HAD family phosphatase (Paenibacillus rhizovicinus), 263 residues
Amino acid sequence: MNYDLIALDIDGTLLTDGHVLTAGVREAVREAHDRGAEIVLCTGRGPVNAMPVLDELGLAGTMITHNGAATVDSASRGVLHQYSIEAAELARFREYCLLAKLHFDINTPFEMLIEGITPEAQQMYKLYGANPVMRKPGEPLPEGLVKFTLFGEIADLDRVEADWNGWTHGLQHIRSGDYFIDVQHKEASKGTALQQLARLRGIEQSRVMAIGNYFNDVGMLAFAGMGVAVANSPDAVKEAANVLTRSNEEDGVAHALRAFAWK
């Protein structure tokens, strides 16, 4: 094996656009694991709806979730590290979304809280295997929040992004998909979390491989000794990678692993 630690984004990378894990991708990931590499899902999802993907791969272990804001152990459901944010820091973003009637959820490492639901959001959660909990807007938010996620149409999110880019605040907002904007701790990222994990494992940067497809993957692609972007990535993501592979619809992860991980 050329790499000891392999980080895989889930949506748009490991899974097809229909959120299917193909047999070819599963077999290649399993082979990388059997050859001795630690496989780490590195996703914008929370642990609860990332674990079924790990189960489908037939694996267990550490997952980097919420764009690096929470690193967790799938077996014990323990949080190894998290970047927490205060409820007061989210107030401005929440109020903006309420006024604009845009759907959002608020997340701790293992909980997803919502204050309302639309048919579109309901379908989206079903597609991602998420089960949000309805909260009363007047109730205080729990401690240990890690992410605020806005869901909407591309044109609406483009306008939101333009507005928020003009704000001064102590958090960061990042486009984690065409239909999502995530707000989280300014130091949280997949790249930072992957670097922390590699250091914990005593693995050199050159022995780390990462495969991703979107803007929230740029940090881990840049950190990894081998950063791979799938063909369906935006140009800026491709530029952050060392190499390109086939798209998520063409078993790109399997192709990359067989081309670079053990040849």
